[in-house]
Amino acid sequence: MSVLPVPSILDDIKEKGIRKAVYESLDRTTERITAGMNLQDIREALRGDKPSRRPNPRLTPHADGFWLHMRPSYYHTSVTGLYPTFRLGWLSTFFFAFEIITGLFLMIFYTPSPDVAYSDMKNLLGNVPMGQLMRDLHRLGAEGMVLVVALHMLRTFITGSYKKPRQFTWFTGVILLLVTLFLSFSGYLLPWDQLAFWAVTIGTSMAEAAPPEVVGTNVNLLLRGAPDIGAGGLLRFYLLHVFALPLITSIFIGVHYYKVVLHGHSLPPREEEVGKDTAKRVPMDRRTYYIPDVMSNELAMIGLWGFILVLMCVWFYHAPLENHADPQVTPLHTTAPWYFLWLQGMLKLGDKVIMGVVLPTVIFGFLFVLPYLDLTPSRRYAHRRIALSAGMFTVLALVVLTYMGTPFYGVSTEASAEVTQELIPMEGVGEVRAIPYDELKANLTVTDTADTIQATDVEAWKVSQTPLDFDATIIARDPGVIVVTEDNIEDLEELYAEDYPALWHAIEEFHHLLYDEYSENLPNAIGYISISQKQENLIRFYLLITWDVPEVDEESGEVKMDGDEPRLLLDVDGNPIRSVSGKQVYIHQEAEWHAH
Amino acid sequence: MSTSRAIRPTPASAKTEIDTPSQGQVQVAPVTRREFLFYVWGASMALALAASGGVIVWFALPRFKAGEFGGIIPVSSIPEPGAAPVGYPAGKFWMSNDAEKGLVAIYTVCTHLGCLYAWAQNNFRFECPCHGSKYDTAGTWLEGPAPRSLDRFEMTISTNSGPVVTNAAGDPIPGLTPTNVTGVSVDTGKRIKRDGRV
Amino acid sequence: MENNQKQPFMEFPSVESRVIAGILFFAGTLIILGWAAINETSRMEEFTERFDGRSVETGAILFENNCATCHGPDGYGQADRAPALNNPFLFGYDFFEEHDRQIAILQGEIEVVDPEEEPEKVAELEAELALVEAQRQEVYETLRYDYATQWAALDAQLTALDTRILEETGMPPTLVSSRVNELTTQIETLNTEAAPILERIAAAEAAEESSDPLDIQRRDEIQTEVAALEAELTPLSALATERQPVFDKTNRYRALNDAHTQVVSLRQQIAELQSQLAALAEGDTTRTDIEAQLDTLESELSAQEDSRDTALEAMVTAGDIVDFDPEANSRLTQLQWNGTLEDLIYTTLISGRPVSAAYWPQPMAAWSQDAGGPLRRDQIQNLTDYVLNWDREFTLEDVRRIQQLAVEPSASGEAAAEGVCPDAANDPDSCDIEDIVAQLEALTLDPNQGQADYGAGGFGCTSCHFSGSAQAPAPQGVFTRATEHAGNNPDLFPSARYYLVQSILLPGAFTAPGFEAMAQLMPRTFGRQLDIQTLGNIVAYLESQDQ
């Protein structure tokens, strides 16, 4: 007779005693939750015992449960090692999940509008606890994901895993690579800083070059929402980034992984007979069960990568945030994101349409159809010398093109502007901003702000009707100015090296740039550094360079040389023409550029 | 690798089956070292998840800067004692200097059902347009369905003779005039709810 | 069966190792998160400080590029151009805050004390009050009238000039000017004598008769004499002309300085006498004596105070200084602005400020892109941060650097209307460019002076118009371009000069290609600021810029 009008656990307790009744109830619940494993089964799995029940309860969660239904219940032991997969496919998925989680939280504090996007960044970084960490994690994860996905493809190519029957898996993989690149790229724009704005401008300009013109123009308009990136473009990129592209990625990850499980992970090439695919025929003694072995390994991997990412972002990596986007000013030496540098490198080599659109299309088109073209049956390295060499060559070419995509290759402007850009870059820190405020404060060259040399003064000197001796004028205006000549570096070292290391470092670099790096373009150059107090906590640092204008070959852009000496441009009286240029920067006491 | 271990024959000592020698007794095999480590791992995982959850809550909770509702709002001058209250819509409070009780900052929302009450100059009291609750200039309930008097905010008042802070009950501060007060900061993050219609 | 096949290499080879590693990773993550959480509050503060600091840095560059032309490189304003921003009134800085606080406290204490019961205490407090009030007065007068440093510098300049004159002429400057007068009189006398002679000679020549040889001899004599006198006069009068303004200015400063010194010393004497008087018992015989002395001193004091004010006014009228009233209301009070100072600066930058007699005679362009200017909202914020960063404890030196103060509303601030077309900003049709071009034909133009006026020391055109400027076309090659425009559109621009004059006086009439976005930037007030000669000089300078 039941204790209550309906059957309940109380009857069980009455019958079996409280401990046993509770235990059994717990056991049943656990079995329901795990879709097949009771407490005993779980303990057995954890202890490394053989399952004591038949059928094997460790297989039922795969058969009956949602979470594991897509995972194979066992792996071929040969593919559970680091080789051949290096866990790259798993890591790609890990990063994708990681990006979704961190991205969702970032969305709380973000509005996709040019008016507020940048101040949202300020709020996120300065008024949201752990906001900076969250952003850093998301950014580092994005960069990591691109890298891991690319390496995953390289690995698949090297082990020949794209071959029959896995052609379509490879095909979806290439789609995922492309989507990953666009996911990362579309996120680039969202902070609405200079880096974002111009990197994306460059990227979308490539789309604009797609032939025929009507396609390129309209693709560009579709992406940007206007001829230039603005409010519309930001919203579009945001929607692509948080909705469209993740959706596409999720779908194709599903297809991709379905195919992986269907065909089984391809075995290391040497373990198979040529032309055979035995991944799905796993002998009993080569089975590694998902529960508990693969599962525990994956959990440990989550712990490992979570730890690495948090560690990196707390102490070593911070996502860059430059000045507010300025559609009027392209910073010198703007680059595309690093994973598009190879494309930028190709663009420097030739025509925008051929290099920026046709060739990349051909390359990706080739990647898509690779498994359908390469019909050789063998996956063994020894049999694939040509393919592997071509692969290696491609990687090498990408590295070289990436280098060529950086500003180190082939982009240079006026030498004096290069010098100042090097020391005071338009975006980023540079040698000068790295100088601590106190070092500057101790080395003011002007005591009265009224004596400061203004940029407008220098402009006025340049256009002055009566020729001015710039060097004398500078000294007259600011007698305390730090003069850097070819020969006085040792005196300067004595003055500054010990007490003002950062200032000294900047002076040394200035000297190096003037007399080693750009000595041909800036003959007989003299550098000046004028430091003045502008406001109570603000110092102005003014770099001035005077030099004799050299004669430049119009075609090559190189300076004409007389032996070792650059040939100087002379005026009507046969005197060298002297030129002057400068760049100022302000350094606030609290700005602490050097802290980075 | 562990595959082999998983299918190794079970040692007798590791038996985990439940024996029931007597009614109500559950005999459980002792925990092995490996099993124990797994439990510790599980606990550490739970802890890490809980910590992350805490971080997320901290992350997502809004923080208020000075000058916006929820933060500290500076007010440069106060009304004369007995004058009509002055509303600060951005800070969602009325600054009222009751002739007898003194200076209070009152939350603009009626305690009944969340309507915004209005100042009725002719009756010289606050009246709620929704259900007719009435309050005096210090925000004390006079009539109507409201369950309690109006909520107040904590104030820090700079006077000529030093700062004065509202007490925990939110009582009005008497004896303040525009001449002896140089500024008030109202902490709209600290709302004082008073029990009953007092 | 387990060992006959090679096991693959794994990162966590045994179950136990991966479990232990797993525990360590989670624990490690927890520790790092904890560390980050502990430091998070200070990190956020640091970030905000750094971010705001960098905003000021950006603002400083923007100010230098856009605002310094009119508001001065250090924000002290420029006479008749734009008011000071680096200015205590803007920040509501109160020079007397501490004094006024003490005075209020003392007055409060005096009120509380019953004078019947504690007369001594009241007297004590009142003495203290008088002391604080005197200190306050001193601060006030120093800020308003103390130009000792400036006077000393001017005096030194004058002395140096005098020494130079002495060296060059061998005469003290006073003799130089009397010598100049003497020479001028002599030349005039000679010229008067020569006039009838010349007339006779001319009449003889007209009648084709030979002139009286005596006349001719006399004329030649006079001419030689005049030439000799003029040779002496020219360098002397040049020096005298150079000296005169410095001398006048020094005198104006001297008058103020003397009066102020007198006032200070009289005050001191009065105070001393008063304390003597207080120390004397009632009915002391010397009292009347001292009281009489006091009366004299006080009337002298008020006379000196009057002459000090007169001297100050003279300096203000002459444009030497701006009249700085330390007790003036803060700008926010003057404007009856109920927002914060940040709001005022931010919104003024966005929308600019129209011309208003009661406000400011010059307009300020709207700087925000959404109001037709060149800057974005975040840049406006940077600039605002930079201007606000001038807030500090202002000193006398800061005050003396102020070149221009904003007009107080309600004060009439009608600008002097002496320009070529004073109403150009409001009524472009009032400006007849063709007529002005015709007027220029009659003048001798000096391109060098024009260049000076074009530059930073003059109207500051170069702060926008320079080679490579993104805001405005460069002066280099402007004449070439003007000639092209005139050639292409003879209907619009009859001549290149017409083009230049129109561009200066009516900037809105035509925008140079490539600068459409900046069209609103150029002030429309040059019609009022430039007189015909200055305009002509600038045009002449621009016409020399053909490349």
Poorly predicted ranges of chain A (pLDDT <50, ≥5 residues)? none
The largest sheet of chain A is:
4 strands, antiparallel
Total count of helical runs of at least 4 residues of chain B:
2
| Coarse structural class of chain A | alpha+beta
The tally of beta strands of chain B, per DSSP, is 11
> Separation of termini of chain B?
75 Å
Strands side by side in the biggest sheet of chain A: 3-4-5-8
Shape of chain A: elongated
Q: Tell me the overall shape of chain B.
A: elongated
Unreliable spans of chain B are 1-24
- Distance between the terminal alpha carbons of chain A, to the nearest Å? 76 Å
The tally of beta strands of chain A, per DSSP, is 8
Determine Rg of chain B (CA atoms, Å): 31 Å
How is the main sheet of chain B built?
A: 4 strands, antiparallel
Strand content of chain A: 5-15%
Which oligomeric form is depicted? heterotrimer
* Order of secondary-structure elements of chain B: HHEEEEEEEEEEE
Mean residue pLDDT of chain B:
83
SSE class of chain B: alpha+beta
Mean pLDDT of chain A: 90
Give me the secondary-structure topology.
The complex is a heterotrimer of chains A (596), B (198) and C (547).
Chain A: H1 9-16, H2 18-33, H3 39-47, H4 60-64, E1 74-76, H5 82-85, H6 88-107, H7 117-127, H8 131-158, H9 167-188, H10 194-208, H11 213-224, H12 231-263, E2 287-289, H13 290-316, H14 341-349, H15 352-373, H16 385-405, H17 415-423, H18 430-433, H19 437-441, H20 455-462, H21 470-477, E3 482-484, H22 489-497, H23 501-517, E4 526-535, E5 538-548, E6 561-562, E7 565-566, E8 578-588
Antiparallel strand pairs in A: 1-2, 3-4, 4-5, 5-8, 6-7
Helix pairs in contact in A: 1-2, 6-8, 8-9, 8-13, 9-12, 9-15, 10-11, 14-15, 14-16, 22-23
Chain B: H1 2-6, H2 33-60, E1 72-75, E2 86-88, E3 93-98, E4 102-107, E5 118-120, E6 125-127, E7 134-135, E8 141-143, E9 152-159, E10 162-165, E11 181-192
Antiparallel strand pairs in B: 1-11, 2-3, 3-4, 5-6, 6-7, 7-8, 9-10, 9-11
Chain C: H1 15-71, H2 97-112, H3 119-145, H4 148-169, H5 173-206, H6 213-279, H7 286-318, H8 331-334, H9 341-351, H10 377-388, H11 396-401, H12 433-441, H13 447-454, H14 478-488, H15 496-505, H16 526-529, H17 532-543
